[in-house]
Amino acid sequence: MEISRPAVFRGLAFAALAMLLLAGCREHEQNRVLLYKKGTYLGAEDQSLSEETLSEIRNRGRRQSFDL
């Protein structure tokens, strides 16, 4: 049984289309913002910093200060 050329090309085209469609299903591309609002951050909320981390950041800023 021989398969005709158009059938082979249709099968290859279908396989290529299926691969392209499935490539859009990657996990890291899911639940991302697709519609944007000007001036508004629509991503996940920032995590709050611990008091210890805030203290370290403040101390680092003081060491970089050039106030004489």
UniProtKB/TrEMBL annotation:
Protein name listed in UniProt = Lipoprotein
Q: Which organism is it from?
A: Nisaea acidiphila
